[in-house]
Design a protein that fits this description.
Strand content: 5-15%
Number of domains: 2
Radius of gyration: 20 Å
Mean pLDDT: 89
Distance between the termini: 17 Å
CATH superfamily of the largest domain: P-loop containing nucleotide triphosphate hydrolases
Shape: globular
Largest sheet: 6 strands, parallel
Structural class: alpha/beta
CATH architecture of the largest domain: 3-Layer(aba) Sandwich
Number of helices: 13
Low-confidence stretches: 177-189
Length: about 325
């Protein structure tokens, strides 16, 4: 990339169960590029059914990055995602491919596109010290509850006793996330990438129907057996990955804490609430180009989006479709 010239970036966003996987595979195949996952649950090995991870066949047809790179006990923050993405993007550019990020974790994508500055500052150091004092005085659970109010998804994956990670996640919001550095591109009304951001949307009632159907399909595909195997392999219920929606409830069922029917309904409800939070995040991203997945088939959407990308490319004099 020449000096002063932004790297192109293609992004596909959408709430869970909206249909990102099918569309992303179509687009990646047409554009002859890879997929960089922006979904926090796809990181974990062995957590396949409950995360709706792309199948082995789908991953054989299109290379996926940031999938199956962590063990269940490992944590992963927005800072980690941005660092990985910033490493992968120039590698794709150098190979003549447009970097293509697909995900549902809005904070990951927002932080990357808007150039959040996560470097430590005196303010962030003071914030960490204050949070550690608060944890010592009020307890780890109290500090964890502060995070749950700001970022329920991250809080669900972090054990209250993992104080360092909990405080780091809070710091992301208060010192590096919601407050963007003064010299960031987004503060000037820009983004740090020449980004074409696709927002896949559906009517809420239909999306919720798809979520309910997906949860039923996960249990039919063997989610209970998957969680049973993970627990038998030594994965603890307090592991970050086991805090994910679908896994924590199923683990509770296997521990005899609820009936199967109750478990399924709890997962459906939690997933619907999660989708609502995702859509709230996307409203904070005014550069999203929205496409109605209810009005078109995946093939029709692919054609429409490819045409729009080509128009965008021509306007920016990019050559990644050549």
């Amino acid at each position: 990339m020449s000096a002063g010239k932004k790297s192109p970036l293609l992004v596909l966003l959408g709430p869970t169960a909206v249909g990102k996987t099918e569309l992303s595979l179509h687009l990646a195949e047409h554009l002859r590029t890879d997929i960089i996952s922006g979904d926090s649950m796809l990181l974990y090995r062995g957590f396949d059914i409950g995360s709706a991870k792309p199948t082995a066949e789908e991953r054989a047809s299109v290379v996926h990055h940031l999938v199956d790179i962590l063990e269940a006990e490992e944590s992963f923050s927005v800072t980690d995602f941005v660092a990985h993405a910033r490493r992968l993007i120039p590698l794709h550019e150098a190979a003549g491919k447009i970097p293509f990020i697909v995900g549902g974790t809005g904070l990951y994508i927002k932080a990357l596109i808007e150039g959040y500055d996560f470097n430590a500052t005196p303010g962030s150091q003071r914030f960490r010290a204050r949070m550690h004092r608060l944890a010592a005085c009020r307890g780890n659970v109290f500090v964890h509850a502060l995070l749950a109010r700001r970022d329920p998804e991250t809080a669900a994956r972090l054990h209250p006793n993992n104080v360092r990670r909990v405080i780091r996640a809070l710091e992301t919001f208060y010192c590096g996330g919601e407050r963007i550095s003064q010299d960031s591109a987004h503060r000037k009304g820009e983004t740090v990438y020449d980004a074409f951001v696709i927002g896949l949307v559906r009517e809420r009632a239909h999306l919720y129907e798809r979520i309910n159907a997906r949860v039923d399909a996960m249990f039919a595909a063997g989610l209970v057996d998957e969680v049973r195997r993970l627990l038998a392999s030594g994965v603890g219920r307090d592991a970050p990955a086991m805090k994910g929606i679908g896994y924590k409830e199923t683990a509770a069922y296997l521990a005899g804490e609820m009936r199967l029917e109750e478990t399924i309904e709890q997962i459906k409800t939690a997933t619907r609430h999660f989708a609502k939070r995702q859509m709230t995040w996307y409203r904070k991203m005014p550069y999203i180009r929205r496409y109605d997945a209810d009005a078109h088939t995946a093939a029709e959407l692919t054609c429409q989006i490819l045409a729009d990308i080509e128009t965008w490319r021509e306007s920016k004099e990019r050559g990644f479709l050549a």
